[in-house]
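Re: [ENG-882] Designed sequences occasionally contain unexpected residues at chain ends

Forwarding the minimal case from QA. Structure tokens:
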């Protein structure tokens, strides 16, 4: 039962940590680990906390960043930022000091996603 929930979660939001799945599912750490173990989750790199489903991990490793940045405006319910406990992991430290990301304030609208730069989240709209 929880393995199916974990599969759906990591399909929807991955890469993610076990702690993020545990918080999302409202289960114990032991239950989260058991559910994830059935899926064969693969860390995005050696020693990383963030994991993906095996097929997604392959696609992640094969990804080549575009030569020019590509910006996408997403809604505030987009999976890239929703249910993330460590949103700062998606933002370059230089950009993290911006008021948009400080003080626990939630940006109106949604995140502006940029592929091809250091920050995955490039701003808000």
């Amino acid at each position: 039962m929880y393995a199916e929930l974990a599969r759906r979660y990591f399909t929807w939001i991955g890469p993610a940590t076990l702690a993020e799945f545990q918080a999302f599912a409202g289960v114990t750490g032991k239950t989260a680990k058991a559910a994830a173990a059935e899926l064969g989750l693969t860390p995005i790199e050696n020693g990383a906390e963030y994991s993906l489903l095996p097929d997604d991990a392959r696609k992640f490793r094969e990804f080549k960043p575009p030569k020019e940045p590509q910006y996408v405006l997403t809604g505030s319910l987009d999976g890239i930022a929703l249910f993330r406990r460590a949103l700062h992991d998606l933002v370059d430290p230089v950009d993290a000091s911006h008021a948009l990301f400080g003080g626990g304030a939630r940006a109106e609208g949604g995140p502006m996603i940029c592929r091809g730069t250091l920050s995955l989240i490039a701003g808000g709209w």
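QA comment: On inspection the terminal residues look reasonable. The chain has two domains: 2-62, 70-124. Proposing we downgrade this to a documentation issue.
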